[in-house]
Amino acid sequence: MSRRLPVFCASLVLVGGVAAAVWWLSVPSAPQTETLTELPVPPFPPRITEGSAYESCLATLAGDPTSAASMAEAWEGKGGGDGAVHCRGLALIAVGKPADGAELLEQLAQRSSAPAMARASVLGQAVQARLMVAQADKAADDASAALRLSPADTELFIMRASAEGMQSRFGDAVEDLSQALRLEGARPDALVLRAVMHRKLNQLDLAQADVTQALALDPDDPDALLERGILRQRMGDWDGARTDWEHARGVDPNSTTADLAAQNLSLLEAGPRR
What we know:
The structure is a single chain. By secondary structure, the protein is mainly alpha-helical. The protein has a domain at 1-42 and 151-274: Alpha Horseshoe (Serine Threonine Protein Phosphatase 5, Tetratricopeptide repeat). The chain is 66% helix and 0% strand. α1 packs parallel to α3 (81-94), α9 packs antiparallel against α10 (204-217) and α10 packs antiparallel against α11 (222-234). The longest helix has 17 residues, at 116-132.
């Protein structure tokens, strides 16, 4: 599964579609913050079966998902089995129908006789698709089902935590992220996400510790910089917040995180005085 996983920071209004899900939260007398980063359609799907037709459909998916969807549908009508369903599910996600794609992937994982790891990976793709359209309850259920098949999968714990965060289940999310970090400690994304959950629980010292550790692993991590700026703003360190958001904006000026940092900087100028 992709290591570029959702980093939940708040959830009220969905803005976006398949390529990205962006969330906003207004903090009184403070900048607007918070983001769920891009949720990619996995470029290298797990192989739930074998065969040239399956490989051809997956290869087409990478560059032309519309054609892949048509190819998979026709192949499925001819008895293409698990491979056709998997390719069509991923293609539906890629063309802008993530809920439909997720439903196909869920059905496939339930009925397939493929090994547990492959079925868990398919469910993980369904989780990502559900998160794209803010279906946090279904995403959490899919992640739980996948973890029963693959109980030591770091990515699944992180994804379930993202869904739990959307449901305001911040304590559950902290538990899942702590388990993910026990499995794989050097994960800035998991640390930043846990920092957010601690902040939601008003555990600012714990949040600060997590984001500090994330930045020790990667000093230029834009999501960690964005989050540390939020924490600094919460603690009244306006100059520190400004420095972090300027740094986050400069790391990748064309990213969603950079856009959020830029908006925070603009709101910072008005917020304290207002």
